[in-house]
Amino acid sequence: MEVLGNYLGLDLDFFKAVSRFDRAALSRLSKSNLTVGAKACYLSHYRIFESIVKNGYENALILEDDVDMELNITDIMTEVHHNLPNDWDMLYLGHCNEWDSNYFKTNLTVHVLHTTGHPQCTHAYAVSAKGAKKLIEKLNIDNPKDHIDIALPALIMAKEIISYSIHPYIVVQFKGVNDLSDVSPDGGIGETYPLMNSTLRFLGYDPNKPVL
């Protein structure tokens, strides 16, 4: 992540995730039947929403630490920002899969906006200040029933959160054969999706080779 930020000139803040071994933090979700990994992930994202509100940010881009981005992501996001409706709560820059989304007419040239349908994964999405306040209010932090990447789409599908998605995605998970999930019960790595111009591959990184 630091390599990406440095090369692309992105000013990133690193937010320490909740560890699945942090019993004190996870006691907040003691009523939930989720696995400890899923609880830790849920609480990590929820704490970021709280931080957005506490610090008075207008919006924030939330990235998990295993991502890759388009080389020209700054140019893409500048164009997206000029076309993004003012009512947005969330904006998905990446997802593992999405169905039931609908094209939203804009003046974008290469990438397009959709009204978000049912996205999977939480590795790259933006939240507005208004959206963060809604998420804090609507998410069940005391007793979550579903993983965070299921709870968020549920709010979107219920039209309680206004969300848009960029297609094709401009941020993906950069996963190799040894990158097993500690959130999913089966520990699987899922699929890796291609970018038009991968920054990490441009810099010579290969997810299936160890970093020396």
TrEMBL record:
InterPro entries reported in the protein's UniProt record: Glyco_trans_25 (IPR002654)
Q: Which organism is it from?
A: Racocetra fulgida
Lineage, top-rank taxon, reads Eukaryota
Q: What is this protein called?
A: 12577_t:CDS:1
Task: List residues of the Glycosyl transferase family domain.
Answer: 28-142
